[in-house]
């Protein structure tokens, strides 16, 4: 299914911090409804890539188009309003507010006042935190706060969802549940997932992009990528013959 | 606490406050009433910073800039129009506009916490210096002589709306000031209960997350700042009405420090605490002023240091927590593990 | 012609006074990320130490160059132990507590010495250029600014303490794993900053009116210079002091001293807006 305009297209994207090149000439295309996994060792530039996509960083050079509209350099809230939602690597929630208020913040932009209550409840149900709705988020466990953040991203109903290590710090059962939800969301939306956990990747992935030293190393189906010798070398810390 | 119980308590408190304000003049003598009027005007100023700092997370070291602008705007307009009605309006609008310009500059320039402190402090000094050097006949706005460091004496006080011939008596001034305080308090309470208030608090909690959900933190903070400026300006008008006088000391750094002390003592993140802090501290300052033993700076400084070190939450929240612990909870807390130390480090301003 | 020489001397004077006034604050802010709002009162204490010891018969040079820094350094040490050390990493609380401290110090000095203005005569004589007067003390201040810069640079660059301090500034956790005690480093740094500030107060004592509230005039200037200068202690402070000092003097020359101040404050605000990382954050990254 080759749409004329891809959902997301980044071309020659470069991000420098002083002398460090975190993203080096990345070109990345995502189709509507696609589920893509980004993998790569620490420092490969995955989180930086997500930050430039969501306006937290302004790329040094290159373009990003969301459904053909340029978004590189736009403010975070403008990009969010266009329909890109992100769960960041460190839990990024409103610690001093209750779970319900956190979700409400995300729902409010989309729903009319009358729809807001039911919409919040539906999300609470989905992330299995209904019992904790009125707890202050700071008092929850790490895994639960991850869920709150995922819930906020879902509640905002974005067209494209970016998940930076959604299963980090979760138990096996929680991870399994997360994978199920990701597949379910993917019925209606495109998702990009950054993850280290290979078992998790196997549960959800179709196509995988491998980042290494700020560049795209390989991009292929999950089986081929996992069988690729260069990818194995990268993960074992060997030098890659370019 | 049950939601309805809380609402009922709040309503009862409001009714009591209305009643107490009404009968106050017949209970205490004129001198005491004048002093209470001053405290009420200062409490409005306390609320303005309590709101932007406690709920908006914006620590302004120069809230007196808006207080002073409000005071001067009122005085100049009152001298020119000889009617307080448009003057009070201007005392709100002028500082709000100034806050809009300054806020646009600060928040849309993505200036962080420390720098915000420097800029607000510096702006206050600019105003202090500028107004201080306006002695002489050249500095005149309409009929109003600015008077430099001597200030403007004999500023007309409040009159009945649109009726300049009927000047308010001290009792009526008290009612006006105290009911304005109550009104501002209730208005802020209401605002914080509305969606807008929750967004303001959410932006304080986590700016990055708010912007990733599509809110513009710059705009939210700017609007919060403007509302704070408007309230401080209104407080300035009330203050000038109390003394019928305004001078550049209204912009002074020591007053800026005092506002911060009121809030630190009363309790950051509450609205009632700063009012309590303001009244207590101002009462102590007035008491010290009437005797020679202690220096007020000594006491204020000592109080601030002690509170930051030992009682950082302030009087009101500490007292509230104590009461909550004594009163059995009507509803058991959610069965989750309540480990407050699990709070992640505050991500805002991590850069 | 003579007027321009005088103006140049005024500018030099403005820059060197501002540099001396800010250096202590810059050391404390640059190394410890603590904004010391009692900085103005440290200056005031240095001035009082100078005036009181000089009036008690101590040689004026000893009073300025030794008594003032030693006294304020000790005060700084005590304050660090009793107050500041509880506030590391709590920027806002440290600002509030040091603001309280500044009021406290003002209160103590007022209680002891009263509100009256004190002073010492300016040492060194004057000289005239054309029909204008200037004093050698102005040149001495510029010399002292240069000497202080050299000393701080030397200490930071070439001594063990300087190396440890710079390492701690970069990464306290890493320095701690290497056996450095960050608490000791912070304590000495704060005391050093206080001593440098006390010296500035001593040096300025002969040319300023000394009252308990004199610090208020300095704190905002010092604060904005350090923030405008950015994280680099020497290059940042020197560049910001040069900019603001010249703007202040030239502005004051063409208008009035009061508007000179207003112009310099406005410049500071615009600078912070344009360069949120300060001058050194933009132009001298990684310098001292």
Mean pLDDT value of chain B = 84
Into which percentage range does the β-strand content of chain B fall? Answer: under 5%
Q: Span from first to last CA of chain A?
A: 32 Å
Label the structural class of chain B: mainly alpha
Query: How are strands sequenced across the largest beta sheet of chain B?
Result: 1-2
Structure class of chain A: alpha/beta
Give the beta-strand count of chain A: 10
- Name the helix and strand elements of chain B from N-terminus to C-terminus, one letter apiece: HHHHHEEEEHHHHHHHH
Strand order of the largest sheet of chain A: 6-7-8-3-9-10
Tell me the major beta sheet of chain A: 6 strands, mixed
Helical content band of chain B:
55-70%
State Rg of chain A. Answer: 18 Å
Oligomer: heterotrimer
Mean pLDDT of chain A: 85
Instruction: Tell me, briefly, the overall form of chain B.
Output: globular
Rg estimate of chain B, integer Å? 21 Å
Low-confidence stretches of chain B: 330-351
Helix content of chain A: 25-40%
Write a compact overview of the structure shown.
Chain A has 242 residues and is an alpha/beta fold. Chain A has 9 helices and 10 strands.
Describe this structure in words.
The complex is a heterotrimer of chains A (about 240), B (about 350) and C (about 290). Chain A has about 240 residues and is an alpha/beta fold. Chain A is built from nine helices and ten strands. Chain A has helices at about 45-55, 75-80, 100-105, 115-125, 140-155, 170-185, 200-205, 220-225, 230-235; strands at about 10-15, 20-30, 35-40, 60-65, 70, 85, 160-165, 190-195, 205-210, 215-220. Chain A has a six-stranded mixed beta sheet, with helices on both faces. A four-stranded antiparallel beta sheet of chain A has the order 2-1-4-5, covered by helices on one side. The two termini of chain A are about 30 Å apart. The longest helix of chain B is centred in the middle third of the chain and has 27 residues, at about 215-245. Chain C is an all-alpha fold. Chain C is about 75% helix and about 5% strand. In chain C, helix 2 (about 40-55) packs across helix 9. The longest helix of chain C is centred in the N-terminal third of the chain and has 31 residues, at about 1-30. Chains in contact: A-B, B-C.
